[in-house]
Design goal:
The chain has 385 residues and is mainly beta. Strands 2, 3, 4, 5 and 6 form a 5-stranded antiparallel beta sheet that branches. A hairpin with a 4-residue loop joins strand 4 and strand 5.
Length: 385
Amino acid sequence: MAIIKLKVNMKKIILIILIILVSCEKENSESNNFSTYEFVKLFPTYSVISNLELENNESIFIYSEWNSNEFKMSLLNQNGEITWTKSHENSLLGHIFFINEKLIYSYTSNSKGIFENTFSFTGNFLSSKIISNEPWYSIKKQNNDLYAIRQSRFGNASKLKIDIIQFSKNGVLEKKISLETSRNYSDLIEVIVQKNRIYFFGENNFESSIGSYSNHFCEIYDFSGNLIKLINTETSGRKSAYQSLVFENGNILMTVINFNKRPIDYDFRLFNSEGKLINSQIFNSPGNSLKLSLFENDRIGIAGSNSYSSSVNNRKKSQFVILDENLDELFEREIGSIDDGEVFFFLQEFNNYYYLIGNTNGTDGDFNIPNNTGGTDLFYMKLEK
């Protein structure tokens, strides 16, 4: 009888231990608000330098340690575990790369031209070739095309010339475009190429009394250099043009940051392809580093600081928001740390997940994990839709 009683007690003890372990695991998961297939990973003292590419729920990105001459390339599986990491000279790994047929293509530009550097899917360097002899281009990725964009002066040295070279994602030259505009060289902020249209975003009408511009503009050109449409929207009184997006449906989002407000206002102004204002929305945030990205079906991903003081109410300092094509909110989630905010560099989506990459100084909230240095760390976050 004593032996039977001991066995029963041992079963009870094991059951109690299991309940405690499950309870602790559940509490740990809920404290960071992460579900089974979500994760946050830190790369201590590093900063991201490239876009993120995704293939079969695996992801590749390029990053570098502060003040290092060496770049690293890593492959992460769907659970955030590093499959491999390879180090290369920074001349080989650029800010833009593609994955095509299990090869990795990285593009760089210098005084000798534009280079395509090829790597295996295990991160080993294979080859390098020059795809254009023209120097000093800025490389941009738009959908499945690669654009090399260069700004230069012409005429009286204050006017702006834009040269654009379009390549396929494996480096094949598709077209070259050269435009001369009436804008001053200092006016231009951003160039976006979308569906045989070139969008120039910038500011003009400088007000010296307050040290800012009073107009945010978008000029739309066809590939022959003809001006199709000009959109102007005011930015007077300590306002400034911010990030712009061009939707697949032809609409244009022009954002203006308002430094007169506390917390800071971001004024989202949505125009149709004819230049008519069709909607506007105010987004409040105390920080001036809001990040916007265009997702599928013209949805907008936004990540940045929350509009409240998290140290007072113990809420996380950053938020991730999804707006639809009409600027209506579809999704919102608090992320990051409580005591320190985050800077977001890339927001991307793939299948049923969102991927957020940036830097943080936070040590609590989502970043209360073992390898946090307490300094500036690179974070990689995967969230379910």
